[in-house]
Amino acid sequence: MTAEVHEQARQVTFLEAIREALREEMTRDEKVFLIGEDIGSYGGAFKVTEGLHAEFGADRVIDTPISEAAIIGAAAGAAMMGFKPVAEMQFIDFISCAFDQLTNVVSKWRYRMGFGVPMVVRGPCGGGVRGGPFHSGNPEAFFANSAGLKIVEPSTAYDAKGLLKAAIRDPDPVLFFEHKYLYRLPRLRETLPDEDYIVPIGKASVRREGSDVTIITFGAMVYRALDAADKLAEAGISAEVIDLRTIVPFDVETVLASVKKTNRAIVLHEASRTGGFGGEISATITEKAFEWLEAPIIRVASLDTPVPYSPPLEDFYMPQVDDIVEAATRLSAY
Amino acid sequence: MRLTRMVEEKLGILSTQGKVIGSLYRSMGQEGTAVGSAFALEPEMGDVAAPILRDLGAVLTMGGTPTEVFQQYMAKNGPTRGRELNIHFGAPERNFIGPVSMLGEMIPLMCGIALGFKMRKQPGVALCYIGDGGSSTGPTHEGLNLAAVLDLPFILIIENNGYAYSTPTERQSRLTRFSDRALAYGIPGVTVDGNDVVAVWEATREAADRARRGEGPTLIESVTFRMKGHAQHDNQAYVPIEDIEEWGAKDPIVRHERLLLETGMASLGDIDAMVSDIHAALDVAVAEAEATPMPEGSTALLDVFENSVAERKPWLAPIS
């Protein structure tokens, strides 16, 4: 085996990085267990938990009926018993079935009762995979308005592993959104450190430095932003790309530092525009860095419609590279 | 039971005096269900109860104090530091946790407590309560089904008290016995006279024993009656007066005290002395609650997350 082939063999996908995090945390701490639908010997709809049932047994990889509210409620109760549950939503869209558990029981528990509910709810989000209106969602904004839930969405294999480990070790509930478009994307394969590491919740990452405009985004849209930045560079516009990595609490300092440098901002996300988290980022920049802005803040987001299924419709619905280029070009005219 | 009723009567006086913030919820007539079931638990084995609105008796049986209840109703810096109202408080070290208002949601959560006992291989049992009205909600079904499928050490008591706010039981379900629902989950279901504290105690005890033997959950329907309105403002004019009279004659406290007298387990003097003791204890508890300060407004910022402080007036940061 050549060194290069050996190196490739050690590279993991985004999905495998998530599985590694689960396996290592379950090995490290016997209080960590998984609960969800079809996650046991079947290994989950996307095979994220494949092999874990065989390795850790049915007591720690628990298959349930189709009952999202009961999955999340039971996870919360087990957390109160000292366990560290990781609940899987088969598609994150179905988290709506447990909306009451998350927004009324879990999120408010520490504030009301004085002790936390450390648990993780994870699952595949996002579109671009022709999943239609019920298998493509990005529901982060629904939960951002419920104080008490942290919301994380990684964009690289390294971050996925490190952030999931941080989420499992966190003293509070964390929603962990995994963009399914990234699960097996060849571009994301990378070699991860052998040693244990975490990526702290609440810290953004500057994926590309630039001086003319800041693009603030997260999840799969990071790659749209990077591709747009390449195109913008050809046109002489230097774009900085910030990957928030954590949506709640989001890294205000990194965002403000960048905007104070570039004086222009685009907020980019895959969820619909109205009521989307982009409005929150935009308002925060206006409140805290108004004097540095040379131009209005633009939100580039999906249409205010359900996610349509057919490829021409879905492509039209979601922000594309050219939409970002167009927005940045417009900003540079100010 | 007597303590429960007297705490609520005291709250009625405090409310008239304007010292209660918000409404007062009575469990009059239902004390037998709350007390009998909670009394059947074994805290030293870890058993946990999740009382709901009509279960002040369970709160007090598990070790919640009248002082805490008065502090809660007066919005003082009590067990929830003013964040929650009435009996929405809990004490895990005393084996009871407080409810949320969305009925049924505590059932999946208590399944998680039961799952915790099972995973730890501990003998504990999780006891959850729901009303005839709350039993119509989705999480009630999801939770009970999960408890059944996973064979959890779990007990659900459906307190059938005749009304959900103004809606009579026949508008909640076509069943005449809520325990028949157990059939649908493949678990045992029993109906018990909820105004007979001993019968409730026995049924809960049996369910707890079954759970400890690893035989899974039990559904208990406790048939009782809500003698007061949904809350203080509700004069329950929609309840036929003859029903109130009929159930008044079946009062669980009078009934149990009669049993104690008839069997010679207590004398009238004993009961009078108990009532005097409770009066004196409640006077002290009220004084303690009244002496408790209100929470500082700024503490509202704390504890959304561990060690967190929420942001207030971010626009007041210096303009640079």
Structural account:
The complex is a heterodimer of chains A (334) and B (320). Chain A is α/β, with parallel strands linked by helices. Chain A has 2 domains: 3-191, Rossmann fold (3-Layer(aba) Sandwich), CATH 3.40.50; 205-332, Rossmann fold (3-Layer(aba) Sandwich), CATH 3.40.50.920. Chain A has 12 helices and 14 strands. A 7-stranded mixed beta sheet of chain A has the order 3-2-4-5-7-6-12, with helices on both faces. Chain B has 320 residues and is an alpha/beta fold. Chain B has one domain: Rossmann fold. In chain B, 41% of the residues lie in helices and 10% in strands. Chain B contains 11 helices and 7 strands. Chain B has helices at 2-16, 31-39, 56-62, 66-73, 106-120, 138-149, 181-185, 197-212, 241-248, 252-262, 268-291, and strands at 48-50, 126-131, 154-160, 163-164, 167-168, 189-193, 218-223. In chain B, the strands form 2 sheets. Chain B has a 5-stranded parallel beta sheet with strand order 1-2-3-7-6, sandwiched between helices. In chain B, strands 4-5 form a two-stranded antiparallel ribbon. In chain B, a hairpin with a 2-residue loop joins β4 and β5 (167-168). The radius of gyration of chain B is 21 Å and the shape is globular. The model of chain B has no long low-confidence stretch (mean pLDDT 97). Chains A and B meet through α4, α5 and α10 of A and α5 and α6 of B.
How large, in whole angstroms, is the Cα Rg of chain B?
21 Å
* Integer average pLDDT of chain A: 97
Largest sheet: number of strands, sense, barrel closure of chain B? 5 strands, parallel
- Classified in CATH, the superfamily of chain B is Thiamin diphosphate (ThDP)-binding fold, Pyr/PP domains
Radius of gyration of chain A: 20 Å
CATH class value of chain B: Alpha Beta
Total number of helical segments of chain B?
A: 11
Largest sheet of chain A: 7 strands, mixed
Instruction: Note poorly predicted spans of chain B.
Output: none
